[in-house]
Design goal:
The structure holds 2 protein chains of 2 kinds. Helices cover 75% and strands 0% of the residues of chain A. By secondary structure, chain A is mostly helical. By secondary structure, chain B is mainly alpha-helical. Classes of the chains: A mainly alpha, B mainly alpha.
Chain lengths: 234, 232
């Protein structure tokens, strides 16, 4: 399960070099890493690039092992795709690294940037309904996760889980999801009304500049290093 | 299953981006007169529910429920497509699914919402709510899995990937590799579709009993028809 609450905690509480960098600087870093993964034709520079990202995560005080594990989720499709191409280990390794390297870069961005900063940047380019929808989704996600914990405890206490009874368990879990959905809509509506009353008009109050500053040398330099490895390592 | 970055050829994901932008444009145009106060919280709640469902993985097949057909039924095709975009954007931020392939991932998930909604509406006179939703889900997931295989087939024709062999061998290798991919995805998917259709059927059926106004796009119409018939 994606631990959104923990990711949010890491983003808000960290004080490392990446936390001090600007959102734009980290976005440039992400673009450079994604470009490297797209143009790479060999697994070795990407392997080195992945190592550079891990080193950056360690330097920046990020939970490198946990985010490296999370980045492996994207390997599943790449693995299937690589196997289907029947190009052997070389091809499979290349596709897996093409998937996990940008995924790690993205995770490094998200665990070092509080979500209002990311959404503020996005709301500058997205239409109002999408920016508001994105924000409401993120807020409601926490409400839902909290409600899910309570629901799991309640269903256990009331004997809702019966080992071996797939039908009963399935029905109870499905009804639980439906109930959560109904309550999430109600809570979300109240939250949105409160936000509107307080002056929310579809844009985030936090506005970050779109210029790079001195502290961005680390993410931008690391991204450039990964790209250089891919371009120069033939 | 979410496609990660770097795997598909640039031309394929660029095309995905273009079609997604077009579909978002059409969705926004269709939603231009909607009541934001009612729809945005619903959009947020349904997208968040999709994210929570997607984060619960069913082991050992690594399948997760999408609730995309539920999104289509509750939100309608236009808002359902936007929910798919928001869900994919947040998933990409969490490292699940790539940034460059947001277009393709959104098209796949969004088409589940659109097709699911359409089928649920088409079956309305014939089946009870549970079976309508379940059947709509299973057909929808089958169609979108075929679309995923289609995308992979399209990307396998990347000349850079097959340039090391001659043309005839390359064509044979491509066909063979696509059928391998199709067999793997369809066999894993089948178990997942059954789980997803049962969950979708139960969720929609429960909502239709507890809070039918949430199913505004389909059941509302039925209710208003029933009321207008009884009025007459």
């Amino acid at each position: 399960m994606i631990d959104v609450a923990r990711i949010d905690h890491w983003a808000a509480s960290g004080t490392g070099a990446l936390h001090r960098s600007s959102t734009v600087g980290k976005l440039v870093f992400l673009i450079l890493v994604v470009t490297s993964a797209v143009i790479s034709r060999s697994p070795f520079p990407l392997m080195a690039g992945y190592g550079v990202l891990i080193a950056l995560a360690v330097i920046a005080g990020l939970p490198w092992f946990k985010i490296a594990l999370l980045s492996c989720y994207s390997a599943l499709f790449a693995l299937l795709y690589g196997v289907s191409l029947r190009g052997g280990t070389w091809f499979v390794t290349l596709f897996v690294l093409k998937a996990v390297t940008p995924s790690l870069a993205m995770l490094m961005l998200i665990v070092s940037t509080p979500y209002p900063r990311i959404f503020a940047l996005m709301s500058a380019v997205l239409p109002e309904i999408l920016a508001a929808g994105l924000f409401m989704t993120y807020r409601t996600l926490f409400i839902l996760l909290d409600m899910m914990d309570n629901f799991a405890a309640a269903i256990r206490l009331r004997g809702g889980f019966s080992p071996g009874s797939l039908y009963k368990n399935g029905t109870n879990i499905s009804r639980g999801i439906a109930m959560l959905l109904v309550r999430a809509v109600e809570r979300s509506s109240k939250l949105y009304e409160v936000m509107v009353v307080r002056g929310y008009n579809g844009s985030m109050a936090e506005q970050s500049g779109v210029t790079l500053h001195k502290g961005d040398w680390l993410p931008v330099g690391s991204g450039a290093l990964v790209l250089a490895l891919v371009v120069l390592w033939k | 299953m979410h496609i990660p970055d770097g795997v598909l050829p640039v031309s394929v994901w660029m095309l995905g981006f273009f079609i997604m932008l077009l579909a978002i444009g059409i969705s926004l145009f269709r939603l231009r007169n909607m009541d934001l106060r009612k729809k945005i919280p619903l959009l947020g709640a349904v997208s968040a529910a999709m994210l929570v469902a997607m984060s619960l993985e069913i082991l050992p097949i690594a399948y997760h429920i999408n609730l995309s057909v539920v999104a289509g039924i509750l939100l309608g095709p236009a808002l359902g497509f936007l929910a798919a975009f928001i869900t994919n954007l947040i998933l990409a931020l969490m490292g699940h699914g790539g940034i460059t392939v947001i277009g393709l991932n959104t098209l796949l998930l969004g088409s589940e919402a659109v097709i699911g909604h359409t089928l649920f509406y088409l079956f309305k006179q014939r089946l009870p709510v549970f079976w309508r939703a379940a059947l709509a889900t299973i057909i929808t997931l089958f169609m979108t899995t075929l679309a995923l295989i289609g995308i992979v087939a399209l990307s396998h024709i990347d000349p850079d990937l097959v340039r090391h062999v001659d043309e005839h061998k390359a064509v044979a290798a491509v066909q063979e590799s696509i059928s391998t991919f199709a067999i793997i995805v369809l066999s894993i998917g089948l178990i997942g579709w059954l789980i997803e259709s049962a969950v979708t059927g139960a969720v929609v059926s429960f909502i239709s009993q507890v809070k039918p106004d949430l199913l505004g796009h389909v059941l509302h119409r039925e209710q208003s028809n029933r009321f207008s018939r009884s009025d007459r």
